[in-house]
Structure formats: C-alpha cells, structure tokens
Known about the structure:
Elements: E1 5-6, H1 16-31, H2 54-66, E2 70-77, E3 90-99, E4 105-108, H3 110-113, E5 118-122, E6 128-137, E7 142-147, E8 157-158, E9 169-174, E10 182-196, E11 202-209, E12 221-223, E13 228-236, E14 247-251, H4 252-265, E15 271-272, E16 275-277, H5 280-285, E17 291-296, H6 301-304, E18 311-312, E19 318-320, E20 322-327, E21 330-331, H7 335-342, E22 350-357, E23 360-367, E24 369-370
Amino acid sequence: MERVRAISEPFEGFSTRRFVVWALLYWALVATGCGPAEGETPKPLPPLPAELLDSERNTIEVFRRVAPSVVFVSNATTPRGAFRFSADELPQGAGSGFVWDDQGHIVTNYHVVHGGNRFTVTMADGTTYEADLVGIAPRKDLAVLRIEPDAALRPVLVGDSQQLVVGQKVLAIGNPFGLDSTLTTGVISALGREIESIAGTRIEDVIQTDASINPGNSGGPLLDSGGRVIGVTTAIYSTSGSSAGIGFAVPAATVARLVPELIEHGRVKWAGLGVRVMPDHIAAQWGVIGVVVRDVLPGSAAEDAGMRSIDVDRLGNVRALDVITHVAGRPVVRVVDLIDVLDDFEPGDSVKVRFDRDGRSREVEIALGELQN
C-alpha cells in the first residue's frame, strides 16, 4: 500500500502565526474590495468570450456553478478554563468543504476537524458561520458539520463514482484559507487505489487524479464535467507535502453511503463479528497466517457460532486459538483485511466465517452485530 499524507491541516509547519497571517490577508482583501462587502449584491458574471473552446467553456461554467457551494473550514481549540473566542484559542487546522443540503450540512475531511472543539465555515461570498460538529468517520476520513445559514444555500449534486473511467476529465475546487475559490483541472489517472486513513485503516476504491490538490484544498469536491461531485479530495502522494501530480479523492459512492448515517446518527454503524483480535505482529511472531481471535465477546453471534477466545496456561503459553482466514469468501491475512471485508456489510447481515482451530478448518455463519467504537 502506498503511504500518503493528508493535505489539509493539521499539516507540517502550520502554526498560529501562519494562521493569523492568512486571516489578516483575507480580511485585507475584503476591506479593499477584493471580496463582496456584507449585504452587497454580487456583481453579475461577465459573459464568456466567443472564441473560447468548448472544453474551456465547460470548465468555466462548471466552476461558476459549483464554486458557491465550496467553503473554507477552520478548526480551533480553546484550552480548558479559557473563554470561548478568547485570545488563548489555538488554531488546529483548516481545509475546504462543500454544502451537502439546504439544511446547512457541510461535508469535509475528518483530518480537517480533528483535534478541534470550535469550527467556523466561510462561504464563497465571505460570510462566516459558527459550525457544530455533526459526525465523524475517521476510517474513511470524512466529517459533517452544520451551520445555521441566514440565506439560501446551494447544495452540490452527487454523481456516480462507479461509472468513472481512466482519462475522464475532472475538476477540483477548494477554498483554501477562505481566500476565494480555486480551480484545478486534470484527468482521472487511476481507479481502485487504496490509501491509508488517519485512523490507520484502508480507504478502498479511491480515485487518483493529476489535478493539482494543494494545501488547504483538502475536503473540497472532485467534479466530473457535468459539475457532479464524484469524490472528496483527501490526500496527495508527496515527499515534500506539495502537489506532485498524484492526488486522491474518497469516491462519491462511499460519501453518499456514509454522510446520511453521520447526519442521522452522528457516527457510522460499522458491522462487527463480536470478537477482539490480536495485533498482526503477534500473529507473525507465532508464524500464524490470518487474524488471531483474542476474545469472543459474551452473548455475541461469534460465541453462538462456537468461536472461542484464546486459551493460555498459567505460564502464558498458548494452548489453543482460533485464526480467521476467510470472511464472506474473501481471504483474511491481516487485521486490515478483516476490517475491509466487514466495511461492505451492515449490522444484521449474515456472513460465512472460516477459521482454523487445532489444524482443522471450520466454517460458520455469523449474524453481524454493531461494532462499538
């Protein structure tokens, strides 16, 4: 698996001083007329030159239509005992996001909001709102905020990321540091990639693109030529931290599945077998190929199916253990493989689990429960 790094805050070198510099620059732009003043009606957009190519015209039209839906998200923390909005408030990170619905829900990356207890959302017109954290899905690097807007919002349209093809044109829009929307374009470079989330789990079916994704753009939408969201930009592959032509986006299929759960429940209901497992390095030390069951939770479906907790003697020597090798017909070698398989199911679904015990392979059917995390 390629190791990648998140591209929005917290990123290396981000500091209170840098945050203040960007904030001052932003308000200076507004004060000098580079952004709309409060209550001012935006000027009509100029007509497109007749000599533009069709591809250029499409890019401009998509940007004009979607940019108002892209926002700047800032994340700060107030030390315990300090007053809200006090001078002691410490910036934790920043990134982009986009309007999900007309109820004020904003989608962004989990690593954009990670570590903060106060969040603000700045719209494309410069209006800033306090935001509440609705829910997080660290395993997929997604988060949902909610604002109380005083004007109509423009939600994005969500596309079908399962119909994408390599070479297809894409556009990435971000709102870095609230300094107005930025646009980059490119193509889909590859599909079905895997990257590591901030929680250490794999995000599958990730979209790879050569559209430049720069610091502060993380959490913004990746769009097709119709202006539909096909992914959420989340990371770049780079040793320096700058865009190097290899960017990644969480696919819209994952976003469309998880965001409604986050809005309704504040979390994602992950499916689980009802077992706790040993770390991979322990299994490797024992020469075991598969995931070692450490504990079978009392009353779980795994217990009902006959799976057993690891058995050790008083000296700590292992006398018996169950090793999961397949789930739903898919091989399981490491813990992350088990997580990936279960991510495709919901609590209440039944799966076949094959495990080894005492040199013999057994297969049982387990009704998945809800993983408590």
